[in-house]
Amino acid sequence: MLTGCRRQAGRYGLYLITLIWLTLLVPLSAAAAPYAAMVMDARSGKVLHARNADTRLHPASLTKMMTLYIAFEAVQNGELSMDTKVRISRKAAAEPPSKLGLKAGQRIKLRYLVRAAAVKSANDAATAIGEAISGSEAAFARRMNRTAKALGMTRTSFRNAHGLTEQGHLSTARDMTILGRHMIYDYPQYYNLFSRKTADAGVRRVAHTNTRLLNSYRGADGIKTGYTRAAGFNLVASAERGRERVIATVFGGRSTATRNARVAELLDLGFKRAPTRVALRKPKRPPYLGKDAGGQKVVIAQSANSTPGTRAKSVRVARAAVTRSLRPRARSGSAQIAPETVAPLVAGLSDDIESVLKEVQNTSAPAPELSATAPSSSPKPKPRPSAVLTASTAHRAPATEARKAEVVTRLSTSGGRHWGVNVGRYPSRFAAEKVLLKTALMETATLDGSLRKVVKGKRGFDANFMGLTRDQADLACRRLQARQVTCFMVGPS
User: Fold this and answer.
1) What is the pTM of this model?
2) Which of 61, 134, 171, 314 is catalytic?
3) Annotation says 44 is catalytic
């Protein structure tokens, strides 16, 4: 009897020891991670508190802030749209949890991947985003590093899009705070994603990884959590109270509860030290470098049927032809050239709009070839007097012959809004107007305020959006291209 009691007591003691070990296993492993913290006044960028802020540590899923930042940049610049359907690769589907549970070969809209990465911190969604933008995760990591450098994140190096531990994948509390500040001010239209407690991720609804802090701390509205055994419990959090906004970052927390408690203390410290009124100095957005591997800005193709290089060259030839053919008449003071004159010159650069309007495309006539030479009957413009110099060129070296031949044809009096976007040529006015209306509803962000104009030519009716600046027209065309809508820019007449 006594022996049986001893055995039972020994068995219970073993169970108790095992339970204690399992309870302490994760916190003890996280405790080994070094601790770092920073608090910043988001309005001015002033550092209010720092501890080991420049120590390079494992960022874990804080990495996804950069993945999402580049996704927002890509959408903004027309590389793809939130409605672009992304094909899930085997690599993305095989990523370990936390994950959305995507299957290889599955297609899902980018907006759902963004929500899954921002709210649930899904690793498979993050990898799929990177592959959709750059073709591979390795290429995307190179873009992440270029962007980090442009943002001033001097001690950060990325190796993947999700943040799972990998040699050389390191960042600092300071760099992640800088990234969090850029996220708030560079893409405010998307920042609300980080405060959503739940979100529709396409295949299912997902819950936020840090609902506790969002529910318990007044004014908290994001940004991103992160955990791996090597990193510990990380968090970049922001809170706004009245006119004040503070960002706090913690690396190496021992548990979710202790991390959140520490972040709450740091946010309190920030609000205590931050002045009530301070001039808002938004961070400068980095230059857009496009999606190439060399860091040079790329020209996005304006047609799905041609390569970017040949397409860009064709657009430049068209612009030159239009300028040379119309310049003499503009100089001679004659009436403004009608759009009908411009349309035939550049119409050959465009195919018709997407498949939804195939019923009006089949009868479209082929466009004429471009002529790169000016009409011989036009009078030559008077050369600019050689004695006329601008202030910026008065002390420069002599210009080349090509620069000497350059002339100014006219000055802008309406803010440079002489550019337009052509979205195809159609056999009837009704068909062209239908396309313009459909496109305007599709791309309201960049075409709002433009003039929808149908121009009748010898070979059909051109559908144009007019009254844009050159930058507006360029951005609108790139965003339409991301939606598989063929278009090209129309220069000033």
Assistant:
1) 0.60
2) 61
3) no
